[in-house]
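Weekly sync, protein design subgroup
Attendees: M.S., D.O., the rotation student, P.L. (late)

Item 1: inverse folding check
M.S. brought a backbone from last month's batch and wanted to see whether the design step gives back something sensible before we order anything. D.O. pointed out we never logged the input encoding, so this time it goes straight into the notes. Structure tokens as presented (130 positions):
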């Protein structure tokens, strides 16, 4: 999948996330499916807080790319109540690929999603000055 996304092909909505390693500074890249609407853009860690999450927390910035287009964003982690509606939407949009990793169903209350949030960090992406 990484090879395809580097070439600019692959399923719609998938991008490559690149973030510097928090200990080495070496760029680490993985496919992600960010959410985007008129209110903003978010990264969700559907498989848990491992992988890219600690590096994004440490760097405070990430790069999303697909083919030749790359954008760098500031990344701010949301508190559980802010993350809850984003997690609900993410689960509704990607039920087949991520539902096994969640202890809530897409129609559960927002409070249930807020309780789930520490297991699935959500970052709001914002345009940086550089």
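Designed sequence read out in the meeting:
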């Amino acid at each position: 999948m990484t090879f395809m996304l580097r070439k600019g092909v692959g399923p719609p909505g998938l991008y490559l996330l690149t973030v510097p390693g928090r200990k080495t500074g070496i760029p680490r890249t993985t496919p992600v499916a960010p959410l985007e609407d008129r209110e903003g853009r978010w990264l969700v860690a559907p498989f848990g807080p491992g992988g890219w999450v600690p590096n994004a927390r440490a760097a405070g910035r990430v790069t999303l790319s697909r083919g030749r287009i790359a954008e760098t964003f500031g990344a701010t982690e949301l508190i559980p109540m802010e993350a809850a509606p984003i997690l609900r939407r993410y689960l509704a949009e990607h039920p087949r690929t991520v539902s096994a990793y969640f202890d809530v169903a897409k129609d559960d209350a927002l409070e249930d999603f807020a309780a789930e949030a520490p297991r699935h960090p959500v970052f709001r992406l914002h345009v940086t000055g550089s």
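Discussion: The radius of gyration is 14 Å. The CA atoms of residues 21 and 55 lie 5 Å apart.
Action: P.L. to compare against the previous round before Friday.
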